[in-house]
Design brief:
heterodimer, A: 175 residues, mainly alpha, two-stranded antiparallel ribbon, globular, B: alpha+beta, Thrombin, subunit H, 2 domains, 6-stranded antiparallel beta barrel, 6-stranded antiparallel barrel, 12 strands, elongated
Chain lengths: 175, 280
């Protein structure tokens, strides 16, 4: 196998991680204002949830931990809080994937809602009760709701990317 | 019996989730969660080597984030340019109709400056603040439900200290809340946690300007009960905190549903360069 092919295969293997890092480092500008409330989609939650549920072998926990640290620096959060949130999502998805055999979009969507509510609560408790950082509760809830609403659309896009990756990997193996 | 089985199942699943390393995983979830908690607890150390490592990490991440956000920034800039082109004709028409007494205002301003200087001399008031500032580039503008801040390209290596006032043009936009070696973070006055002592003219009414997390309007707190605030009143920094210079314009008073609000002079979404004031 040539060096180009090897590099290409490696790139495909880390592509989900690359998407996660871009979404974290690109400053997550997925915001809009509605009725004086700021809606902020948390794309990172969706990416982590989707790939750790579907293909956990692509997503090293170390990378997720690192992405959390980067997110905290950019968002000016206490370092470590996003890592805890992201790893909690991984723990929840790992737990569910071990106990549920049948998976479909509706089940995933409902479970995604439960996961982000748990993670949002962790975020709120740590920021408000431990670090005394006031946050707009309604904005937090609206943000989580907006993230929940767009999950099916992004899940479809990510599934499409995943199919392409699977086909490419399969082709490479059969070459 | 079946309940015990269920509990056993649950325990086995939980143990497998937190302790087992999956395929291609180098760390278990529990290890990384514990490391995260340790890092989080290190937030209580605000000085010493822990703080230095944190500052270096932040500098590296902020610079990398700036590079990663370049393509996204260029897309949004292109979009703004196109929109601006569509608006250009309307703005040109507006400018034609509005009478701008610029020259008159400049002369008036010079007169008041001169008068102020003479009066200060008369009462022997020393100038506590200087006008030394850095013009610096905004690396990232951070918008989230909890945070309105800007990251800039200067840090404590350049003499920037916590609490330093930051202006865009002549208007106050916020203060430094986090200074790393090469980068700093400005907390905008629109942030939910921002509280700035202000003075409202005419009337010289002292109060606190509080951010709402909304970029458009701010709120005023601790107003005297019998105030005579009118729409259009101008808000300046009062300087009573001893950190920010007094007399920097911030915004003007508007009444929104019979509530007193502050309309900021600056559009926080359009800031590319800022002036950071520092003491010699």
């Amino acid at each position: 196998m040539s060096i180009i092919n090897k590099t290409y295969s490696k790139f495909l293997a880390i592509f989900p991680v690359v998407i996660l890092f871009i979404s974290v480092l690109s400053n997550s500008k997925y915001n809009f204002t509605y009725d004086e409330n700021y809606l902020s989609f948390n794309i990172s939650y969706i990416i982590i949830f989707f790939w750790s549920l579907k293909r956990p072998e692509y997503f090293g926990y170390g990378f997720i931990f690192l992405a959390g640290i980067l997110n905290d620096v950019i968002q000016n959060n206490p370092l470590g809080i996003s890592s805890i949130e992201y790893l909690s999502i991984c723990a929840l998805t790992a737990f569910v994937s071990r106990r549920i055999i049948l998976q479909n979009l509706i089940y995933d969507w409902v479970f995604f809602l439960i996961s982000i509510l748990i993670v949002g609560s962790i975020n709120y408790i740590i920021l408000v009760y431990i670090f005394n950082i006031p946050i707009a509760y309604n904005s937090l809830l609206l943000g989580l709701f907006a993230t929940f609403i767009i999950y099916p659309i992004l899940a479809k896009i990510l599934s499409w990317i995943d199919n392409i990756l699977q086909e490419s990997i399969y082709d490479k193996k059969n070459q | 019996m079946s309940r015990e089985m269920g509990r056993d199942d649950f325990v086995i699943s939980a143990r497998s989730v937190f302790l087992n390393k999956g395929n291609r995983q180098k760390f278990s979830l529990l290890t990384l969660l514990l490391i995260s908690i340790v890092i989080l607890s290190l937030e209580y150390f605000k000085s010493g080597p822990v703080n230095q490592i944190r500052m270096i990490t932040k500098d590296i991440v902020i610079k990398s984030s700036y590079v990663a956000s370049v393509p996204f920034k260029s897309i949004s800039k292109t979009y703004s340019t196109v929109i601006d082109h569509f608006k250009m004709y309307d703005e040109y028409e507006k400018l034609k109709t509005v009478e701008i007494k610029k020259q008159k205002l400049i002369l008036e301003n010079n007169f008041f400056k001169e008068e102020n200087h003479k009066l200060k001399k008369l009462i022997n008031e020393k100038n506590l603040y200087n006008d030394e500032f850095y013009v610096t580039k905004v690396l990232l503008d951070q918008k989230s439900p909890y945070l309105r801040s800007l990251l800039i390209n200067k840090g404590f290596k350049h003499g920037i200290k916590l609490g330093a006032a930051v202006r865009s043009d002549s208007y106050f936009i916020g203060k430094i809340v986090d200074s790393n070696y090469l980068t700093s973070r400005i907390l905008l006055i629109s942030d939910l946690n921002s509280k700035i002592p202000i003075i409202i003219e005419p009337g010289s009414i002292s109060a606190i300007l509080s951010g709402t997390g909304n970029n458009e309007l701010g709120e005023i707190e601790y107003l005297p009960e019998n105030n005579n605030i009118k729409e259009g009143g101008i808000i300046y920094t009062s300087g009573s905190d001893g950190v920010i210079s007094s007399g920097i314009p911030v915004g003007k008073i508007i009444f929104d549903n019979n509530q007193i609000k502050v309309d900021y002079f600056v559009d926080f979404t359009q800031i590319d360069f800022v002036k950071v004031y520092y003491k010699k």
